[in-house]
Specification:
Oligomer: single chain
Shape: elongated
Distance between the termini: 62 Å
Strand content: under 5%
Number of helices: 4
Largest sheet: none
Number of strands: 0
Helix content: 40-55%
Structural class: mainly alpha
């Protein structure tokens, strides 16, 4: 593991006893135990300051995204099932 992964684990994921880090390699555990919270925060902050920005979604509105999720789960609109209004 690299320092950013270890620092992020310390800050966001570690639950103490019985955590997944208990099974890490001796080297990774030693690096984690030598890292203070302040060091971890500095490492993560430095990484985030220089990390490329993540894309801001796929261009859909919230309503479009919700409709897409519902349709994929079988909850489409009437038009999706061939009903366009009028007599049956």
């Amino acid at each position: 593991m690299n320092a950013v992964q270890i620092a992020a684990h310390i800050l966001y994921d570690c639950i103490g006893d019985n955590c997944e880090c208990c099974d890490w390699s001796d080297a990774d555990r030693a690096a984690m135990e030598a890292m203070s919270m302040e060091m971890a925060d500095g490492i993560v902050s430095e990484y985030e300051a220089h990390a490329p920005a993540l894309p801001e979604g796929d261009g859909m509105t919230d309503a479009e995204a919700d409709a897409d999720v519902l349709a994929s789960a079988g909850w489409g609109t009437d038009e999706d099932y061939g009903y366009y209004g009028g007599e049956d």
